[in-house]
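Hello again, I could really use a second opinion on something today. I owe you a coffee for this, so here goes:
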Amino acid sequence: MGANAQTTVPDFVADTVLTAAKLDISAATGVPVFATTVTRDAAFGGVNKVLAEGQTCYLESTNVVQYYDGAAWATVGPTAAPTSGLVVVKAETAFGPVSTVTADGVFTSSYTNYEILISWTGSTGVVATCQLRVGGTPATTNYNWQRLICGGGSVTAARGSSQSTQEIGNSRETPTSTKITLFNPQLAEVTRFLTLPIDNEGLTLPVLTMYNGNHSTTTAYDGIGINFGTSSTGTYTIYGYGKTL
């Protein structure tokens, strides 16, 4: 339970001692906070507090505010924890100076596909890579990628098969940013990558780079590690693509 969660709703009875503990419960939140509907129902009713129309509460289990309409509990909002759109599953996290960052326990059955946004400052001309992880252990084989680079009037391409890492960008200048889209990392099937680095050869000379790849081992993963190839500082955020409207 959170710091404000409670299991009772104070009922002040005439000619009894008003304790500091009861005042603390009332003053802590204004609106009672409960871990679940079970603790809510146990607190409202009986000798605790007679349930009456207009009473409100907050539920930690679903992150909603509710009110009693005289017959049942109704939700003020949101109707449920967010499950649609692009939802943050790992808040923007600062790092550095380090050469590698890891995020474990971020891929779950709540979402099928994920997006990772990374920005970092390090050395120029260094290729950044990633590896999928499960239980804190990285997968070190079976990464396959196709790279396309368009700069000025020239186009170059390269392919890597059965690699130990997945390439995600080449820092032609710093700071560098990359967007990684992951398909099905938490399922026991092939995980697919679409990576779009923001590359430039000078601020007025943008370069288009794209990676299309996969990790052909059919394993369910819960995390990812990013290697910048050199000591770097920056931030990353991980999002899940919602599965409902």
